[in-house]
Design a protein that fits this description.
Strand content: 15-25%
Order of helices and strands: HHHHHHHEEHEHHEHEEHEEEEEH
Number of strands: 11
Radius of gyration: 26 Å
Number of helices: 13
Distance between the termini: 92 Å
Helix content: 40-55%
Shape: elongated
Largest sheet: 6 strands, antiparallel
Amino acid sequence: MDAAVEVILEWLSRVGFACLQMLLSPFYWLSILLIAIHYRRQMLLERRLFAVKMHSWIQQTWRAWLGGLVAGVLVSAAAIGLGVHVTPSIMFLIWGISVLLLFIRVRMLCLAYSGGIVALLHVALRWFPAFSPEGMVGTVVQDLRTLNPAGLLILIALLHAAEAFLIRKHAAAFATPLFMESKRGSVMGAYRMQTMWPIPLLVFMPSAANAGELLPWQPLLSGDLWALGWMLMAFPVMIGFSEVTYAYLPQEKANVTSSRLFMYAAALLTVSLLANWWSPLIVVAAIVAIGMHEWMIWWSRQQESNHSPLFTHSGSGLRVQAVLPNSPAAEMGIMAGERITKVNGYSIRTKADLHQALSTSAMYKLEVYNLNGEVKFVQRALYDKEHYQLGVLLAPDDDVTYIADTKPVSIIRWFKSPWKRHRSERASSDTTLNQSS
């Protein structure tokens, strides 16, 4: 009994020390700062396009942190059980590669890219056995040679399985509506589904100071770690995805993306486990980590381009793009994607028609068509001190001033305004200036 208590106390001590490392890690706090900046950009975009704020950037950052914390606990438990281990130099190498990739695309902060590159560097060093630099570079090279890249790739697979779960459960709540320009130059409604979670991981690290201390189980990825000694180390990372959808509702897109990510995680986990048994498969696993990740992004864009835009007006009624929380529309059960065709007995074709019809009565009586083309009738009283506002964000027409800038961004462009003037507005401004001159 005393031995069991000693083991528990020893584990609690090491976990506590690793958690303290996490709190002192600049990368962990940097990831939370980037997430906060991202959600503040989304809030500013909503205000610019719709003159309302659908989300609180503080609340969204808090929810992302909490989701990342839960995922971190679960993935850490799986990683420790399997015996995933890295060294501090490898951790800093992964962070360094991630920061460099930020200057290409913000979405490349994902561990799939930096981890895949590290695995390929491990393989490349086999071709240069005489390469032995000194100093800090020499330490990184030596740790790369002794790294078990299969374990790192297995960790990436576990993280993406957690990401798939978070996307299915929470991504739709993080989605922000926007206006964007179609290929033909017209304006259409869409959603940006760009979500990130800071993940506080705990993994094993070799430590000669703790040599001879054995685990009560034999991990799959142990190698000679236990003969050298071990301790727990904080390894904060960030996971997330970025999609712009105009052909799906947010939850539908989240379900599609989640299923695709589960498939990615299963494929990478399978190949990485095989690579742990037969090392020549490391190259294949690293290519799967990077290449299949890029393929998912490409395939998602192909699916979008093969479908008609959902958030456009058909000429019969007005298409609802989003519903404000706690609004009369939300209380009546109006949902994104539905069409409002009549209000208080008046047929609705334009936004002006809607505003005029709403002001004719102290009751809201609406005829609404859902996505299946079925009609439903909803109503609600207008209470004292309430304005004649329904609480819906409508799909755009061409008479909009600003649209979202949906081009892929690097960390440099990320700090610029996420919107731009619609070109029809620019053209009309130029015409006015020419006429004035």
